[in-house]
Amino acid sequence: MSDIKxxxxxxxFIKRAGAAGVGAALLPLSVLNNAHGxxxxxxxxxxxxxxxxxxxxxxxxxxxxxxxxxKPSDQLVFRQAYKTGVTYWDTADSYGWGKNEKAIxxxxxxxxxxxxxxxxxxxxxxxxxxxxxxxxxxxxxxMNTSYIDMYFIHYVSNVKKELTAAxxxxxxxxxxxxxxxLFGFSAHKNMEDGLLAAAKLGWIDGIMMSYNYRLxxxxxxxxxxxxxxxxxxxxxxxxxxxxxSANFYxxxxxxxxxxxKMTENFLKKGYTEEQAKLKVxxxxxxxxxxxxxxxxxxxxxxxxxxxxxxxxxxxxxRQRLQRYAQHTAPGYCAGxxxxxxxxxxxxxxISDILRCSMYHHSYGDRVAALRLFNEIPANVKSNILxxxxxxxxKYCPQKIQIGKVIKKAYDDLI
Length: 414
Ligand code: SF4
Prior knowledge:
Number of domains: 2
Oligomer: single chain
CATH architecture of the largest domain: Alpha-Beta Barrel
Bound molecules: iron/sulfur cluster
CATH topology of the largest domain: TIM Barrel
């Protein structure tokens, strides 16, 4: 193994990188559009993360969104994000079992004037209107705010089944009450089908979906994004750095030489491979924002720097990313679960389990991995070791060794 291999990898980079709202009146989106408001710093415009229109909703949002699970003690990260113009904040009622929302609430309690300048997103994983109301009220209370800018149903994988007429009624009623401004969903699997179906509904304002240098070049994803653009739906990309499973590293021994050459090449140009992966997604003007987990100031700074960096990727850079995507495809689950799950003899949520593996091994977030894994019903869990994955492996477009990776994830998380 070369010194470079030993000394630098994406994972190493990540490791090294180390409520106004209370009683606030619902402000028009035009106010939010000028969200580098007076209570931010007097930083020059060029030092602030730029904004883009969020579909045709009338909102403008920062192209970088503060995601991940921050704790109440992480107030400096929120403050620095706000000061650098990262004013799109993403959370979910489940993140850190509510701690992430409480952390945001703590910030707004200290800086109440900042609430009007933040595009605040939270999510709940249910399509039951009563539960949605209950969860929304909890989120509002935790975050010290009277409204949410964008409310997502979390983890939608089947738009027809989950976005029912009852959900539409709930969204309309809750908007009329002033508790949410916009409504949509997040999709971690079967994203393309979800986007295409949502574009036909006519009542979805925004979608947050897995979208990265691997997925954005695929024809179906391009069609799905175009359909949403046509429908005026605002799009937020997540999983943009398309981390792949450490189990894959285990199967090939290490990263490929090509991957390491790519890393060196980007570093020579003044940005890291991870920053290049953000830049390539921002090249699509229809992606309003990238939601990125930024658990510390170092990663926040690296991502803000990428957002401010005007240097464009070259054609050769894009080709490098594509070659890297091809070489590492067997380590990345593209979320097309209708392919593998319908080819497996027993009911197993394959892409969800691969996501658990990614959270656990690549993000080092065992808590998130366990939370997701423990949502799998016991009778379904009991299928995991019994199922035959041979056909699923045959049809998997990423050529993932599904059986091996699933069993490893099971052993790690049970
Ligand atoms: S395992 Fe393969 S087929 Fe299944 S969701 Fe992942 S990439 Fe798609």
